[in-house]
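Sequence design from tokenized structure. All designs in this work follow the same two-part layout: the structure record, then the generated sequence. An example of the structure record is given first.
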């Protein structure tokens, strides 16, 4: 009996600390499309800082051309969406830009791809393509 309790406890601790599945339920209809359209491209400004992105929900329409301009207020960060093969460095005193067409509707988790301190693993957000 003790052994079973230890196994359950260790399993619970491992799952709680893994950080891979945050269990977040996201309803796209709860979020509005952001940014502005200029010459047919949706422009969105994103700021990275220890340990967050602002905005942390980037919402666009399917089929749109999207341009994300990144800045950081402190140290070097990164922006990665593995499912879309996007990875860009965000350096202080620079604007980093990525452009893509949001072809497939869905919810894509993004994260910082440059180790930036103790809260690095919590530096995440979501791209919602409606």
């Amino acid at each position: 009996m003790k052994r079973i309790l230890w196994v359950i406890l260790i399993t619970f601790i491992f799952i709680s600390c893994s950080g891979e599945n945050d269990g977040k339920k996201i309803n796209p209809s709860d979020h509005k499309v952001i940014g502005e359209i200029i010459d047919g491209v949706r422009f969105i400004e994103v700021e990275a800082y220890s340990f967050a992105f602002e905005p942390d929900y980037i919402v666009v329409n399917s089929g749109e051309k999207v341009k994300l301009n990144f800045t950081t207020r402190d140290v070097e960060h990164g922006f990665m969406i593995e499912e879309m093969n996007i990875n860009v460095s965000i350096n202080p005193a620079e604007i980093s830009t990525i452009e893509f067409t949001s072809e497939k509707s869905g919810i894509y988790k993004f994260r910082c791809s440059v180790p930036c301190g103790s809260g690095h693993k919590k530096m995440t957000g979501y791209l919602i393509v409606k």
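The CA atoms of residues 63 and 102 lie 5 Å apart. We note this feature because it recurs in several other targets discussed in the main text.
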